[in-house]
Amino acid sequence: MTGTLRSSLTCLSPSDSEVVEMICVPSEIEKYNEEYGDLTGDTGNNYRVGSDQSSYRLQW
Amino acid sequence: MLSALTRAQTAQPAAPVALDGWGRPVKSPVTGPKAAPAPRRDLSGIWEPANGPGDGIQPNGPKDMPSDGKPEHTPPYTPLGLQMQNAHKALFGTTAVLQALNNDPADKCDPLGFPRADLFQLRHTQFFQNERQVVILYQFEKRWRTIWTDGRELPKEIPESKWYGYSVGTWVDDSTLVVQTVGTMGDERAWLDNTGRPVSDGMRVEERFHRVDRDHLEVTVTIDDPKMYTRPWVAINKFPMKLQSPDYDVIEMMCIPSESEKYHREYGDVASETVGK
Questions:
Q1: Which residues of B touch A11 (CB under 8 A)?
Q2: CA-CA distances (angstroms) from residue A53 to A47, A48, A49, B146?
Q3: Per-residue pLDDT tens for B26-78?
Q4: B148 in contact with A at a CB cutoff of 8 Å?
Q5: In this prediction, does ipTM exceed 0.85?
Q6: Does the residue B18 lie in any domain?
Q7: Is B30 domain-assigned?
Q8: Rounded to whole angstroms, how far apart are CA atoms B221 and B206?
Q9: CA-CA distance, B174 to B178, in Å (whole number)?
């Protein structure tokens, strides 16, 4: 989550690396919220997920 | 008075002025009395459906294989393919369902994926290229695809399925690029077209981009998916596109989940009679 996608502007320059596909899929967000998001009382960037109830903070 | 009335009766309404993404009047596409020859191995430019934007929307399925009940337009389904087709509740085609009953992933603004990007809402399509790649920018959803023309082969084993797959292209002559794509999503998350034709993880799609002359492009898309169809079939055949002015700014055209949800709530569900009147 903390990496920087440096190649996003290089599509027109010669390179043999394809930019990784990274698409927000609404139905997957909806599914995530149903399965995990609603289990937490957290809001904002805090999420508590996983069977061990470990938590992490999304890094932006 | 009479003169004014006569003028009012005979005056032609002003033709609507088409605007581009910057709100500027659209210039006529680059055309002349006779188009110049196609540049060698070059698809660069902004292309639009030659017969107008309606030609590329393809609401009822690919232009040359619409879902209209005609036998010649019915894909050669395998038993599994037909089963999957019947499980897909589309909003268009001969088996269309009411809004609230559909299960089209795109109705939630999920990505169209490939090849549906060619077979639904094919609008302005911009090509960039260099010596290694051809990059296609689609107007709808503002998606892009990379087609590798550096001589690499398609992956023998797919590292990970992708919405827009893995594509390689080969110039078969100086004006025709043939593109092979594999590794698309291959399940119910992505439909082949707007009528719910199915795809599998074994699908291979061939696109043939033939630049007829400087101003005209033809696109042919062939589906080869042995799990879903008993033989390859052509979805669009020499679909005509014409070159747009180079200063044309492609209009933003996005699917917005919150707007889609609002539409369903206010109109779709009511029209489908799934909520109280």
A1: 128, 133, 135, 144, 146
A2: 10, 6, 6, 40
A3: 887 666 678 899 999 999 999 999 998 899 999 999 999 999 999 999 999 99
A4: yes
A5: no
A6: no
A7: no
A8: 6
A9: 11
